[in-house]
Amino acid sequence: MTSAVPPPGVSIADARLQEVADGIYAYIQPDGSWWINNTGFLVGRRGVVSVDACSTERRTRAYLAAIASVTEQPVRTLINTHHHGDHTFGNYLFAGATIVAHDKCREEMRNFGPPRPVPFWTEIDWGDIELEPPFLTYESGIRVYVDDLACEVRHVGSPAHTTNDSIVWVPDHSLLFSGGLRAGADRRGAQVPALRDVGGPRGQERRAVAARGGP
Ligand SMILES: [Zn+2]
Q: What is the pTM of this model?
């Protein structure tokens, strides 16, 4: 299982912020391997919506610092695209934010529990993680507004990466926060048909701004 071991030299400092539309950012953490995800956020006049947290305390604090580098607004809404720890363990650092996800994301996160040593991973410095599951949940989807900009948060059903994957689709910018999903197939080869049905004019190009890391 050596392929599951995080490669050495993957530094938090290598993470970069990219503005992909006005006030919308992708936060990209090389190299996207296990426990290293990509996130993104949208800046409004009175608050920020973040799509996912990061895995460890240090990585999440670095992400929050990246947000603070472009806005003084607080993160008021945190959307978890699925329950995996690289997207949710850092939730507790988003003090004051409403944490939103699919019903099963909350359930699966509570079932998994806090980070713990796993035989085939190298030891990870998690920091002082406190489990903070989503506390506003939905069954099929929810619409979140950033000022007047609508963001469609939709459960994609199954088969997918997990039982509780959601995507965040921003139709006005043709932007897709794909969370744990890749178009076409997931890590185990499962097709992800929902990515073809996220809306927008037929044939409209979609730009995935925050694809998955691992697991
Ligand atoms: Zn995942």
A: 0.84
